[in-house]
Amino acid sequence: MVEQVTSKFATVRILESARDASGYAAEEIIAKAGPGMRFGVATGSTPLWVYEYLREAHRQWRFTLSNATAWALDEYVGLPADHPEGYRNVLLKELVEGDATGLHAEQLHTPEGSSPDPEAAARNYDAALAGGADLQILGLGSNGHIGFNEPEGSFESRTRVEQLTPQTRNDNARFFGDDVSAVPERCITQGIANIMSAGHIVLLAFGEQKAEAVVALLEGPQTAEWPATVLHDHPSVSVYLDAAAASLLSTDYGRS
Ligand code: GLP
């Protein structure tokens, strides 16, 4: 593994496996974590190994979120509050239950997707989040979305209710028994402007289904067609990829 400085991002690290890439990402998070940190957390399958590493580091007394707060990127609208695929419940399971990372449920902030007034819930979340996370974990949609900010949206967007694209609902059907009709049609998502206000961003992308979006992110121009390219303007981004996600890049970015 070799660290390579690129023109767009401070760090791009490509590892053979997603598990190894997650280990490096987790070590960066552990090194940067501190008391009072506002920790921006992603959902989906991508960050799960990072969370596993963070739980292990907590068991080893090397890492704690006991004095931190955690802030979700997004939440489905309309799922019952106890639905296991609701992002609050996923994050409770990954980071809170069983003293997993020291984070308590009241320190975990998520948009209230089951609210009868989701627009108000989005506004409340935006106000509470205010200046953004200190450290933000990001996944990448196969269409280049970050959070649930789908292609062609404004780079100035803030937390709001959004429609999910058919591609994203298809991508996420695997969490709902492969039944696309069970995937909610709407979500509350942090906007691009919220994400851009994070102090540091750790972006992860794994698997060949992300390869095209990774090329757009690392080698393409900035465009709303690929929302993640807004990160070209962020001063502090680390990108962690596995070999499959990196497979369409024109160079190996120093991968050993
Ligand atoms: C999901 C989430 C994003 C996530 C992305 C990738 O729909 N809203 O926050 O980063 O899409 O998902 P996955 O990690 O499952 O591939």
Describe the model.
The protein has 256 residues and is an alpha/beta fold. 27% of the residues lie in helices and 16% in strands. It contains seven helices and ten strands. It has helices spanning 18-32, 48-59, 87-96, 118-129, 166-172, 192-196, 211-219, and strands at 11-15, 38-41, 69-72, 74-76, 108-109, 135-138, 160-163, 186-189, 200-205, 237-242. The strands form two sheets. The chain has a seven-stranded parallel β-sheet with strand order 1-10-9-6-2-3-5, with helices on one face. A three-stranded antiparallel β-sheet has the order 4-8-7. It is globular and about 50 Å long. The N and C termini lie close together (5 Å). 2-amino-2-deoxy-6-O-phosphono-alpha-D-glucopyranose binds at residues 42-46, 73-74, 139, 141, 147-148, 168, 172.
Properties at a glance:
binds 2-amino-2-deoxy-6-O-phosphono-alpha-D-glucopyranose; about 15% strand; alpha/beta; three-stranded antiparallel β-sheet; about 260 residues; seven-stranded parallel β-sheet
Q: N-to-C terminal Cα separation, in Å?
A: 5 Å
- Low-confidence regions: 1-5
- Give the beta-strand count: 10
Helix content range: 25-40%
Bound molecules: 2-amino-2-deoxy-6-O-phosphono-alpha-D-glucopyranose
Number of helices: 7
What is the H/E order? Answer: EHEHEEHEHEEHEHEHE
For the largest beta sheet, what order do the strands appear in spatially? 1-10-9-6-2-3-5
**Biggest sheet architecture:** 7 strands, parallel
Radius of gyration: 17 Å
What average pLDDT do the residues reach?
Answer: 95
* Shape field: globular
Q: Given the helix and strand composition, which structural class is it? A: alpha/beta
Beta fraction: 15-25%
